[in-house]
Amino acid sequence: MAQYLTLAQVVIAFLLMVLILFQQRGTALGSAFGQEGGFYATRRGFQKKLFWATVACGALFIVLAILHLIL
């Protein structure tokens, strides 16, 4: 059982990395250090689905990690 959890966690981790890399932002490192001029817009269409898929994969990754600790 632990082997399947580990394999599922690796697959979800890879998918999570891909989903995070597909998300785009209008600002570079300037927003990380508090500079203004950021581009904030509402997510629509594919960007919204990509965002929620990332949230779901992150939650699933955390659940799998907790299950791996328990079992």
* DSSP helical segment count: 2
- Proportion of residues in β-strands: under 5%
Indicate the radius of gyration in whole angstroms. Answer: 16 Å
Number of strands: 0
Uncertain regions spanning at least 5 consecutive residues: none
Report mean pLDDT, rounded to a whole number: 84
Class of secondary structure makeup: mainly alpha
The helix content, as a percent range, equals 55-70%
Along the chain, the helix and strand elements come as: HH
What is the overall shape?
A: elongated
Main beta sheet, described? none
Name the quaternary structure: single chain
Question: Span between N and C termini?
Answer: 8 Å
What does this structure look like?
It is a single chain. With 71 residues, the chain is an all-alpha fold. The protein has a domain at 1-23 and 46-71. Helix content is 65%, strand content 0%. The protein is built from two helices and no strands. The chain has helices at 2-22, 46-70. The longest helix has 25 residues, at 46-70. The chain is elongated, with a radius of gyration of 16 Å. The termini are close together.
What features would you highlight for this structure?
single chain; about 70 residues
Fold topology:
Elements: H1 2-22, H2 46-70
Helix pairs in contact: 1-2
Summarize the structure.
The protein has 71 residues and is mostly helical. It contains two helices and no strands.
